[in-house]
User: What shape does this take?
Amino acid sequence: MSTGTEFLIVAIDGPAASGKSSVARNLAQRLDFAYINSGALYRAIAWLAAMHHIPPDDIAAIMSRLDQTSFEFGIRNKELFILMDGTNPGTHLREHIVNRTVSIVASAAEIRAFLLIQLRAFVRYDNLVMEGRDIGSSVFPYTPFKFYIDASPHIRAQRREAQGFQDDLRYRDLVDSSRQSSPLALVEDAYRIDSSTLSIDAVVDRIFEGLKAQNFPLAYLQR
Ligand code: CDP
Assistant: This one.
């Protein structure tokens, strides 16, 4: 599969609180690529459902609510922006209700199919660092630049606590890796990095090494 464009994609996957968001953002800045956190779109839908008191497993009701909502998103200043009925959901996306429900919402094939089309379309606009659970396995399986950022469950729990959010990581890991539709998984051709004892810069340095090994255009690495 090819998009027929010249744009490059770096896929970053991994479990919750593995450090992938900080790493992906930092990497995108160093490469001067756009940074897309695909999880924010799943979170926005979970937030929409919560706002309308729709249970996270009532997918028909969520899809119908989505139909009636103006859900706009795109790239602005090299980052993802999201507007729901004209409003940026902002910090609501990190609320406990969203942490509790997002994995259930994201396990629905209909929701995934809806976002898959949108996520793939981003490559028409810019070079991308995209992070999520299924970017290397399902959204852009053809990119040679795939990384899987992991960390021990203990370290991940500590990191999320330090961010001040209530988040049952074990529950989310379980739902994310056991769902039928594009589950979180380490694909064979991804370069796995355990970030448990590494700084963000050190993980990004490892990614640079991995990119070089995959013949990533050197001009981007020398910025
Ligand atoms: O930041 P954190 O790693 O906690 O999660 P996130 O990237 O914001 O993603 C939130 C949730 O969205 C995940 O737990 C998954 O259920 C879902 N997700 C997904 O299914 N596929 C993606 N590509 C990205 C997120």
Observations:
- The longest helix spans residues 38-51.
- The chain is about 45% helix and 15% strand.
- The chain has a mean pLDDT of 94.
